[in-house]
Structures are given as structure tokens and as C-alpha cells.
């Protein structure tokens, strides 16, 4: 296995190296396409979700190999409760199974687990598994695996605004003192840097209520691969493409300023 941060492992036979500074620190993935993967095979959606949960390992090993420090996986949105009850139950069952079976392995790999979302709506057994897993892995520092679960970005922003308004109402904060940082700090992602790269699988090109505030300047990468088929190499390919992108954040890169002056 390659060392962390060494992308000279080759992509489909092509050996490529990426400068460390061009490795995204935080990659967030909208894991989409489980249903279509199953339908294509005339299998029940639950089989697609099961295969999808197995693909999580691929993304984690891709993140570790490429030296990514934060990997966020969108596992269940606040709107996913609107799916048929048996599908919701299947997804919750898989989550329970995943937390029980994988957490020791994640701990051994020095991975820290963090769950993002409204935990109160989840059943007590899952909440306990999450709390235990977060406590067990709290000091790990090779990779932070963030699972977005019962997560909705608009709801997150709403709660943040309510918390800030409450402080203003109590006289603990003045309206003028509210800054971008005030809002950043009131979000669930308080401790997590903004994603550098957002990947969505299955060919869909939308955000579906995912990290709307945090993706202001993220690079977006859309893959036609359905999530259950998304392998470590697909993850590495996305990281390599990110490495070739130019991030401007609205400014002019230095070399363009020089060209203009000379002309
Ligand atoms: C992603 O796969 C998993 C979840 C949203 C929980 P989907 O179940 O959305 O797959 P498609 O979009 O129906 O193919
Ligand atoms: C987004 O996928 C949510 C997750 C991947 C957990 P969906 O399949 O729910 O999104 P839409 O409905 O196609 O936008
Ligand atoms: Mg979908």
C-alpha cells in the first residue's frame, strides 16, 4: 500500500504525482445511485443500498492513500424520510450494521468518526452506537470521517440563525457584531474546514440540500459512476483532477496581472 499522500500509485496505468499542496484537505461526497444500480439488475433497492454501504470502504482507502484529512459522506438527508417506510428502515438497519461492524476497523486505521445532522430523530440504539463510536475514535488523527446523517443544510442554517438571534435577544451579541465567522461557528460544521472538493456520483448534477453555505468556493466533480460501483481509483481520479484545477476565489491570479501590465 502506498504511503499517505503518495499519489504515484498510478491511475489506470498512468503514474502521476501530485504536489501535496494540490491535495484537497476536505472531500465531500454525495453518494448517489444505489437505487438505479439495483434497478438495472432487477434487484430490490435494499441490495443497492447494501452494495453502496460496501463502497464506503473504497472512498475511505482512497482518502487515506491520497492524504485527504477530512472525508464527508452524505448518507441520509432530512428529505430522505419521505421515501417509503421500508426503504427508510433498510437504510437505518444498514447504518446500525455498519456502525457495529466497521468501527473497530476504523479505529485501528486511526480514523476519527464524526456524525453531522440531527441525531435526536434517530432511534436510541443508533444514537448510542454513534456516541460510542465518536468517543472511541475521538483522538484519532489520520482521517476524519464525517457522516452526514439526517442532515439538511437549510435546516442547519435556520438553526444557526435562530441561535444567533437568541443571543441578540438576550443582549449577549449586537447585530453589528455578527460576522461571517459568527455564522460559521453556529453551524454543525464548526470544527470542520469547508470542502475543497465535492463529488456527486450517478450523473446527477445538484446539491440536494448538502452543505450549501460551506461549498461557496468548493470545486465540483460529477461522476457518471453509480455509487455502488465507485471504487478507490475513481476517488483518486477525482483528487487528481482537482489537483489540476485553478481556484480563484473571485480574485485574479498573479500571472494574469503581470500579463495585463506588459500588454
Ligand atoms: C443514494 O442512492 C442513497 C441515499 C440517498 C440514501 P439513491 O437511493 O438515491 O439512488 P437513486 O438516486 O435512486 O439511484
Ligand atoms: C442526496 O441524494 C442525498 C444523499 C445522497 C444522502 P438523493 O437521491 O436523495 O437526492 P435527489 O432527491 O435526487 O435530489
Ligand atoms: Mg438518489
Summarize the structure.
This protein is an alpha/beta fold and 263 residues long.
Largest sheet: 6 strands, parallel
CATH topology-level name? Undecaprenyl pyrophosphate synthetase
Give the strand line-up of the largest sheet.
Answer: 3-4-2-1-5-6
Low-confidence parts lasting 5 or more residues at pLDDT below 50? none
CATH superfamily: Decaprenyl diphosphate synthase-like
What's the overall geometry?
A: globular
Q: Which CATH architecture?
A: 3-Layer(aba) Sandwich
C-alpha Rg (nearest Å): 20 Å
**Helix-strand category:** alpha/beta
> Which CATH first-tier class would you pick?
Alpha Beta
Strand content: 5-15%
Residue share in helix: 40-55%
Number of helices: 8
Order of helices and strands: EHHEHEHEHHEEHH
Strand tally is 6
CA-to-CA gap between the ends? 50 Å
Average pLDDT, all residues: 93
| Count of all domains | 1
> Which small-molecule species are bound to the chains here?
3-methylbut-3-enyl trihydrogen diphosphate, magnesium ion
Annotate the secondary structure layout.
Layout: E1 26-30, H1 34-40, H2 45-66, E2 70-77, H3 85-108, E3 111-116, H4 124-137, E4 143-151, H5 153-169, H6 180-186, E5 197-200, E6 219-222, H7 232-243, H8 254-262
Parallel strand pairs: 1-2, 1-5, 2-4, 3-4, 5-6
The protein binds 3-methylbut-3-enyl trihydrogen diphosphate (IPE) (2 copies) and magnesium ion.
One 3-methylbut-3-enyl trihydrogen diphosphate is lined by residues 30-32, 74-77, 80, 204, 206, 208.
